[in-house]
Amino acid sequence: MFQKINFIFGLAMIFLYLGAGLFFLFGSEYLDMNETFRVAFGLIVLLYGIFRGYKAFLHFRESKETGEEES
Questions:
Q1: Where along the chain do its domains lie?
Q2: pLDDT at 68 over 70
Q3: Per-residue pLDDT tens for 8-31?
Q4: How far apart are CA 26 and CA 33, in angstroms?
Q5: I need a surface site. Which of 6, 10, 20, 42 has the fewest CB within 10 A?
């Protein structure tokens, strides 16, 4: 039960980071920020979302290979 909730929360956070990164990169008309800082921060957040997605994929693949079942 908790593994399923943890998995769903992890996916939600991945999409949140990816969305926030894209918003910072392409949402210049909504943000009153220095352009260099906005792009750098957007790239960092976007790359972190990709990293979290990769780590979640590895964890999911490892749990399927070892036969762990979510109940």
A1: 8-66
A2: no
A3: 999 999 999 999 999 999 998 998
A4: 12
A5: 6
